[in-house]
Specification:
Blueprint (H helix, E strand, L loop, with lengths): L1 E3 L4 E3 L6 H10 L8 H18 L7 E7 L4 E7 L10 E2 L16 E3 L6 H4 L2 H5 L4 E9 L4 E10 L8 H30 L6
Antiparallel strand pairs: 1-2, 3-4, 3-8, 4-5, 6-7, 7-8
């Protein structure tokens, strides 16, 4: 646990929640491997941002990110045409998705450099990330954060796009959680020998 002096509470760290998270990911059949279904979903997320935000939403990467034992794993990844490739894994202290372990709300950063806490993150210099919108994938009923769905871009977005970005990322988070629930239900029926529709 780490103590947040501003909030006056102790918050779980990456390692505090790892055992429960890995157990739930296994139950859902999510092993951290790239998945074409999630890649297609990431492409849909990127496309939705482009459709809603016009030129401001072009060239946004999109990811379905799981927090595995020692790293972040992008099981779903969309790289916009002509943009530089990114790895499918990232250290647990890089990027903005780990903020979701400490919060249960979406995070919208129209310009990450506007806040010193976020501006100092290694991805700002390493990948040139300037904008981020992400929402946590929260397992119910345990409340455990499994990962995120997010978009990142190399150009800041106007502040007035914040509410649209928030609505978009939450809508896609909800759709992804529904898909995970269906996947878990199908997996449960097969493992119990029930193959009825």
């Amino acid at each position: 646990m780490r103590y947040d002096a501003d909030a006056g509470v102790s918050l779980p760290t990456w390692h505090d929640t790892a055992e429960q998270r890995m157990k739930l990911l296994t139950e859902l059949g999510l092993d951290g491997a790239p998945d074409t279904e999630f890649d297609r979903f990431a492409a849909q997320v990127s496309g939705a941002f482009a459709a809603e935000l016009g030129d401001h939403g072009k060239n946004l990467y999109a990811m379905v990110n799981l927090f595995t034992e020692q790293e972040q794993t992008f099981v779903g990844l969309h790289i916009p045409p002509g943009m530089r490739a990114v790895d499918r894994t990232m250290r647990p202290d890089h990027g903005f998705c780990p903020e979701m372990l400490d919060r249960t709300k979406a995070l919208i950063l129209s310009d990450v450099c506007a806040n010193p806490h976020f501006a100092s993150n290694p991805v700002v210099d390493k990948l040139g990330v300037r904008t981020y919108a992400g929402a946590p994938l929260i397992h119910q009923p345990t409340g455990t954060v499994l990962g995120t769905v997010c978009v990142i871009g190399t150009d800041p977005l106007p502040r007035e796009t914040g509410q649209t970005s928030l609505a978009l990322i939450k809508r896609h988070r909800d759709a992804l959680m529904d898909a995970l629930a269906q996947r878990a239900g199908t997996r449960g029926r097969h493992s119990s020998g029930d193959t009825s529709g």
